[in-house]
Amino acid sequence: MSRGMFITIEGPEGAGKTTIIKYIAEFLQENGFDVAVTREPGGVPISEQIRQVILNKDNTTMDGRTEALLYAAARRQHLVEVVIPALEKGQIVLCDRFIDSSLAYQGFARGLGMDEVFKINQFAIENLMPDLTLFFDIEPAEGLQRIRMSKSREMNRLDLEELDFHQKVREGYFKVIDQSKERFCIIDASQDLAGVLSQTKNKLLERIKK
Ligand code: TMP
User: Fold this and answer.
1) Distance CA 74, CA 88 (A)
2) pLDDT tens-digit series, residues 102-131
3) CA 104 to ligand 1 center in whole angstroms
4) What is the rounded CA–CA span in Å between residue 113 and residue 104?
5) Which residue puts its alpha carbon closest to atom 7 of ligand 1?
6) Which sign does the torsion angle of CA 189, 133, 35, 30 carry?
7) 82-109, pLDDT tens digit by residue?
8) Contact 35/163 with Cβ under 8 angstroms?
9) Percent of the chain with pLDDT strictly greater than 70
C-alpha cells in the first residue's frame, strides 16, 4: 500500500486553524502534493451528526465521559471513511483536530485523566497516530477575544467554558507535547497571518523533506 502523510492541526480556541489550514493546503498543492483537507469532530455525515450533539449549547447536562466517548466515536467513523482511504491513495491528509484535542480538553481540562482518555481513543484509532502535528499556540484570553470579535464564528458549548478551562486546555497540550516532542511543530499563532503562514510553511517543508 502506498502511504500518504497524516498531518493534524491543533490549538486552543481562536488560534486561527480554520483559516490557516486553507492556506497550508494551497501551499502544498502548489508544491505538487495531493492534499485532502478535513476536520474533527465531523467530516462525514455520521460524525457531523455526533458533532451537533456534542456542541449543542442546550446539552448542558452532558457528562464528561459521555463527551469523551462521543468525540472518540466521531473520530472512529471519520478515520474509517476519510483518513484511511486518503492515506491509502498516497494523499497528505490535513486534519483540523484529532486525538490530542481529546487528551487536552477531556483528559486534562475536564480532569478525566489523559491516560484514561488515551485508552478509549486507542480503541477508536488502532494505533493510527499522526505523522506530524502543527500546534498553533495562543494565549486563551487572546484566542477567546478573537472568537468574540469574529462575525463568522458562532460560540459553541465548549467555547462557553470559563477562561480557566481554556487555560487548562493549553496546559494539557503542552503536557502532550512534552511526551511526543518529535511529532510536534509549535507555531506562534499570536503573530499576524503573514507571520504565522511563513513560519508554518518553513517548518512544514523541513518536516516533509525528512
Ligand atoms: P472546532 O471549534 O475546532 O471546530 O472544535 C470543536 C470543539 O470541540 C472545540 O471547542 C474543541 C473541542 N474538541 C474536544 O473537546 N475534543 C476533541 O477531541 C475534539 C476533536 C474537539
Assistant:
1) 20
2) 999 999 999 999 999 999 999 999 999 999
3) 10
4) 9
5) 158
6) positive
7) 999 999 999 999 999 999 999 999 999 9
8) no
9) 99
Cβ proximity of 81 and 38 under 8 Å:
no
68 touches 120 (CB < 8 A): yes
Look at residue 91 and give its three-state secondary structure: coil
What is the maximum alpha-carbon separation in the chain? 47
DSSP E strands, the chain: 5-10, 35-39, 92-96, 132-137, 184-188
Q: Give the separation between CA 186 and CA 205, rounded to whole angstroms.
A: 14
The domain ranges of the chain are 5-209
Mutate to test the pocket of ligand 1, among 97, 99, 147 (most ligand atoms within 8 A of CB): 97
Is the CATH code 3.40.50.720 the one for domain 5-209? Answer: no
Q: Which residues line ligand 1 (CB under 6 A)?
A: 13, 40-41, 71, 97, 101-102, 105-106, 158-159
